[in-house]
């Protein structure tokens, strides 16, 4: 599908990835956003976009908003925290949102959907992890919710003639980020430039992708892949350890802090300490990210430092 001249509904468009997607899509498409602003910022939605404030766990919100005139839905809204202290609510809300979106699409005959899944569906899998790796054994309720949502999408792809583009993201970095290891280090070092507390042993090693590459890759896959269920990993070929992230943040801020580790092989329960997704399927479709994992982290730090005064920070 060509992402030009389309009428698109973007759920979660006031969030980090959603607002970056809007920056790309809004100039060439007629876009409506639904977001309850539970973790998003209204100001990050461009003015040309129609904004509807609503909670997608309530199906009535979509009855008023999603009509047959839409060409596709980009479904990004989610409770995305891996260490949520409300796991049952997270599971129920993420599933309810996706089921509501799919049922309403089916009702009005809109059959194209982009979905933002996550590397967490793989759990602690061998690396690099390809899309057809099995068994999928998530270790967090967040990962379990994404896997449950993927199975609903698969059902609609195979039994209701939907076209699904299902993106399993590595860790995404970029401007506006207020949560995650990169902004966490930036904020901690702003508070105390002399020392930095690092969760775990610092050897956790994951693949980071810059938001600009992530959006490019999504648009590329939507244009180039036309199966019923198009599942693609979006990530980089390399990884960055947590200690290396601390080094990059320190370099970019011109600091030389001492590091203190809290210990253990992971930052928190449900954290997958080592993650690298295979991006061969993406490469076979003709897309390579422009930045490596280290470069993405460095650019993400620069984005945060540059935008510190004039960008809204999202969670
Ligand atoms: N950021 C990453 O590194 C990453 C990695 C893997 C997957 N993802 C997925 O990508 C998507 C976007 O992530 P993000 O980082 O932009 O998250 P985000 O929290 O910044 O954005 C999600 C948006 O959804 C909205 N939302 C949440 N619950 C809602 C509800 N019930 N009704 C309406 N709106 C609701 C929030 O207000 C927020 O604006 C999510 O599905 C997330 O799980 C993100």
Commentary on this structure:
This protein is α/β, with parallel strands linked by helices and 315 residues long. The chain folds into two domains: 7-171 and 208-234, Rossmann fold (3-Layer(aba) Sandwich), CATH 3.40.50; 178-207 and 238-276 and 291-307, UDP-galactose 4-epimerase, domain 1 (Alpha-Beta Complex), CATH 3.90.25. The chain contains nine helices and 14 strands. The chain has helices at 16-25, 59-65, 87-108, 141-159, 181-191, 211-224, 242-253, 280-284, 293-307; strands spanning 7-11, 30-35, 50-53, 72-75, 112-118, 163-169, 171-173, 195-198, 205-206, 208-210, 229-234, 240-241, 258-261, 274-275. The two termini are 31 Å apart. The chain binds nicotinamide-adenine-dinucleotide. Residues 12, 14-18, 34-40, 55-57, 76-80, 93, 97, 116, 118, 169, 171-172, 314 line the site of nicotinamide-adenine-dinucleotide. Nicotinamide-adenine-dinucleotide is lined by residues 12, 14-18, 34-40, 55-57, 76-80, 93, 97, 116, 118, 169, 171-172, 314.
